[in-house]
Amino acid sequence: MTIRLPYVIVLALLAACSPAGAPDGGVDDPYAAERPIRFSALIERERPAADHRIAYGDGPLQFGELWLPASPGPHPLVIMIHGGCWLSTLPGLELQDLTSADLRARGMAVWNLEYARIGHDQGGWPGTFLDIAAGVNHARTLSDSYPLDLGRVVLVGHSAGGHLALWAAARSAIASGPLAPAAPPLPVAGVVSLAGIADLEAFSAQGPGRCGEPDTVTTLIGAERGEAGYVDTSPARLLTLGVPQVMVSGELDTIIPPAFGTGYTDAAIAAGDSVTHLSLAGAGHFELIDPAAPAWAIIVDQIERLQAHEVDE
């Protein structure tokens, strides 16, 4: 089901969804005249710091940043996966600093993952995927030292990170090969995919080229594997995921247009999954990771809704 939310409704929901004491509880958007924004606008803003940088493996990019609320906890956990077209030449986990800080202020812990990308040693297939799998499962280790509620874990990813968040939720369906789980994947309450690339085949064939597709997709899945490379890498090939999913698109997004969210949503529902697609008017690609944008409060509301569905670890 695709739900289109006009801008005026986005503003109304912003006011309704912002909890008391949230850092930006009103509807004023100080960057309204600049929208839709580019990623550089987020990088150039002053960004708060995470509480801890922690390795989840031995590789130079196998680390994450943990953001912890001041309250005692245990805290619901957002596992955040940044975008950047899977490319080493674009910014990394710092893209999610503003959203991580906002969620921390709302009482959620955030585990913001870095990972090897195309152009890094070990980037592409299978290394990028193995990093995400290890980083997500490392939340179990983190919970030994920090007050995290592993019954309320939501995966949130943006753009290429939205693809990887969906893949992380789906990977128990991979039965063989390097990406088959060596240990039980961390159970999650749901996935929020922000302009996520959920169907790699469709994006490779029909994407607007702003993310370097089809070449980036071909490299990501393993060029030597041909069409078989989609089988263990594309969420659309791994349906059903078995967890609730929210696909969020910006109607002004020229990098991952909303049609890709609609197409995956229809296929996932037909396969038996619970999926909602929100298409937000007035939002481009990067409004979805901008806490100052009207879209963000709607996204937070969806994260909180999924966290209410606790799972057994």
CATH topology: Rossmann fold
Shape: globular
Q: What count of domains describes the coordinates?
A: 1
Distance between the termini: 29 Å
Radius of gyration: 18 Å
Can you tell me the CATH class? Alpha Beta
Strand order of the largest sheet: 1-9-8-7-6-4-5-3-2
Q: Characterize the quaternary organization of these chains.
A: single chain
Q: What profile does the largest beta sheet have?
A: 9 strands, mixed
Content of β-strand: 15-25%
Parts with pLDDT < 50 across at least 5 consecutive residues = 6-26
**CATH second-level architecture:** 3-Layer(aba) Sandwich
Give the full name of the CATH homologous superfamily. Alpha/Beta hydrolase fold, catalytic domain
Q: What's the structural blueprint in terms of helices and strands?
A:
Layout (H helix, E strand, L loop, with lengths): L1 E4 L1 H11 L21 H6 L7 E4 L7 E5 L7 E7 L15 H9 L3 E5 L13 H11 L1 H4 L5 E11 L1 H11 L19 E5 L5 H7 L8 H7 L23 E6 L7 H14 L3 E6 L13 H14 L6
Parallel strand pairs: 1-9, 4-5, 4-6, 6-7, 7-8, 8-9
Antiparallel strand pairs: 2-3, 3-5
Helix pairs in contact: 1-10, 4-6, 7-8
Structural features:
Rossmann fold; 313 residues; nine-stranded mixed beta sheet; globular; alpha/beta; 10 helices
